[in-house]
Amino acid sequence: MKTTIAEALRLGAGRLAGIADNPRLEARLLLGHALGLSTADLIRDADRPIDPTAFDALVTQRADHVPLAYLTGHREFWSLDLAVSSATLIPRPDSETIVEAALREVAAPRLVLDLGTGSGCLLLAVLHERPGAFGVGIDRSAGALAIARGNAARCGLSDRAAFVRGDWAEAIEARFDLILSNPPYIPAPDIPGLMPEVALHEPLSALDGGPDGLDAYRRIIPSLPRLLSPAGRAVLEIGIGQSEPVSALAAEVGLSAMSHPDLAGIPRAVVLRGSGG
Fold this sequence. Notes:
alpha/beta; Helicase, Ruva Protein, domain 3; Rossmann fold; seven-stranded mixed β-sheet; two-stranded antiparallel ribbon; 11 strands; about 20% strand
């Protein structure tokens, strides 16, 4: 059954009320994706008849709390248009705090390591800003690595980024000027209470930080002294209330810590350095 663009948007936004923070915007993005049209096209051709079948299917999935980014297949991060899939976390604005802290702390890194790279967003953002750097992204998920490699190509950074399947820092022997990580840090008991877009659809392995949310830090931090160059820095994303326990884990292996807040003033990044830094 045919309908117009304007009518499809109205009906779609109505179905997303109570699901999306901005139902009309999300309906517009989904319709543009379904039809291969820009926002300007949708506005200009509002009375154009269309077949809404593909759009209706997307709206149905979104109404079931499938994240918008998984339906459109991409998300902007640090001005980069990155592909995402259900194999990766969806990049979030809060994580740009990690990039900001990294760029401030290490002006001209030569080698950058990203542990648990996912979509590659952290590594690619830093490489985008530091043309003299080469980066390595590690992840256990083959699906995530495929997305990260595609994003490197999408951003024109394939020649400066390598992606390797691995378990955190095991089997890595090089020294890095900058180490990045957004590890899973949600305490396992808290996951069922997250918004359904996250709890039901984003990869559990990228969310579940164990009973207290600190399991991944206990794996990563002891490896940092052997991986950091003398003046190197590690920048780790943390959850609410985790600055002190993560800093304590760092102190146990001789690293000092300093936290950086996100735009809401919540400590979101911890910068770790050795005695030589």
